[in-house]
Sequence to fold (524 residues):
Amino acid sequence: MNITRRWKATVVALTAAVTVGLTGCAANSGRALPAETPVAGGVLEYGTDVQPTAGGLDPFLASSFAAQNVLVQVYESLLTRGDDGSYQPGLAESWEQTSPVSYRFTLRPDAKFSDGTPVTSEDVVFSFNQMRGTTAPQRTMLGTLTDVVALGPLDIQFTLTAPSGTFMNVVSARSGGLIASKEWYESTPPQVRQRTAMGSGPFQLTNWQDQVVISLARNPHYWDAPRPYLDGINFRIVPDAQARMALLRQGSVDAIWLADPQLGEQAESEGFLMGANAETRALTMLVDSTTGPMANPLVRQALSKALNREQIANLATYGYGKPSLTVPVGDPAAVAPDANTPNYTYDPEGARALLAEAGVENVTIGLTYAGDAAFSQDTSTYEVMQEQLSRVGINLDLRPLPWADVMQRVMGGTYSDLIAVPMPASADPAMSFAFFLSPGIPSNKTGASGADATKLFGKLMAVAEPQARRALLAELETEVADQVLVLTPYAVTLRQEIWSPHLAGYSPDTYSFRYRLAESWMES
Fold:
């Protein structure tokens, strides 16, 4: 307890005192130079910005990106995907598609949960049935899954109602498709499951002190020995970016991540290592198309035309943001906007004409967003939008809330007008649409305006052939832009990862899951 109090005091003092400049230097992607042989031992101190919110660490309910970054250390999926997109063994050592609608997986015989009990086919059956029964987006991605059966202790058969373009991507998703212990999950109260964990991943959860630290320890039963090399990881929760930088400089943490790329370049100029990440964070704003002024498609289209996205990216992200549609433009599967994208090009005169046609004058539209320090980099975006929209007679009412409250409104479907939910790229591009196009979930408030997009969404999930999927994705993005079912001003790098040269063997992954921490080690 004394250590925790001292840690809190240090963070508070640094937050108040640090006045580091933001001047950045041109930088190349940093990469740790690993030793010939990994070194076992040591605890990595990692400074992060927020803790998990809605759903906590429940593998079937967690919805925040902060949760995914912890879950990927503790739980595993049947398969994983390499940087080239290829499927690779995970908990399953082998698999085969036995027909267009059936798959068979065989588990590793040495896979165990962190309490030493074996991972069995019954745990897999239970986990997928849990996914199918939740309100999480993966339920929609598994919509064609009709049956999952244990054929023996290690073999599982999946049967679909029709060919699926998303099934294998969900099975291999580090952000979903996670396998939990059936015995542990059923015997643990729901609220406790959100603060504890029982997975088969390289680490196990040992402690979560609210707004202070989430501690992981090496899983002694991990099947891929001698990994992990680290004895543990402490994710130190430090909302202020300048405070995280100061802790890194003084050696109190070994790694941090930052939303501000200028700060990242500053850190690299000081001798720290910085990973290269793609623009996989879309600043998505969900639209309530069922009530209020945004129920009128002319108003939605006017709002979209009134946004000068290039100016927003230049002013709010210092030029680091890139034009993007729903799927973040840094995702290899993404379709980039162009001059033909409906309602995307800046056209204030067109916006005024649409508002006049709608019979609307000086309309007020609310924008709910996360006002926490960890999301401060987004605030300037909303302020620039507010100024731009005022030029055409739209009053954008900015409504900051704690991030946890934002997620509760999204998951419960209680938001109105606009609500900003920064979304990372997903294992399958269809998942970027799941929050607002999945039938029957509360966060879908597209109403009748989303009818055609919902049909295209269903087709996208059903088609597996790559070229056909890309064509459908382009068609879906066009329909979403035409009806303005979401607003996406731009996409930026999700996080800049910065680390000390003492962390060896580490490099970021495309989707910023940090799963390669299990492959890394500490050097003196």
Observations:
- Residues 1-35 have pLDDT under 50 and may be disordered.
- The CA atoms of residues 22 and 263 lie 6 Å apart.
